[in-house]
Write a structure and sequence with these properties.
134 residues, alpha/beta, Rossmann fold
Amino acid sequence: MSTLLDTSLWIDFTRARSPQKLKRFIAPYLLDPEARLAEPVTFEVLRHATPEECRQLAQQFQTFPLLETPADLWTSAAALGQVCRKSGIAAGSIDLLIASLVMHHQATLVTFDRDFQAISAVSDLKLKLLERPV
């Protein structure tokens, strides 16, 4: 089954100041043959990167298979947002896009971001919530 590597893994793995222990923890997820990327994740990672970081990340991202963005992504993310709102969950827009894309592909989201836990409680989002090693 495909896994989408969330922004939180990429940021922690590529950030210069991230501890080596954390990078070693993340590496097996990046090397997993089932690991995938998606456009909302690449957007989040690249939007704050320096030009040099963008070049390096873009080269690395080209080696990953992409979960295609479905044509109805915006509609399904809005519907998921309504479900979250009715349940008292204030989900972020990008998180809703990522969750909807993952569900469309029946993949599993691998993340450190606990916000997805709330979304998974009211949807079919398959989630592997990781804990950063201390």
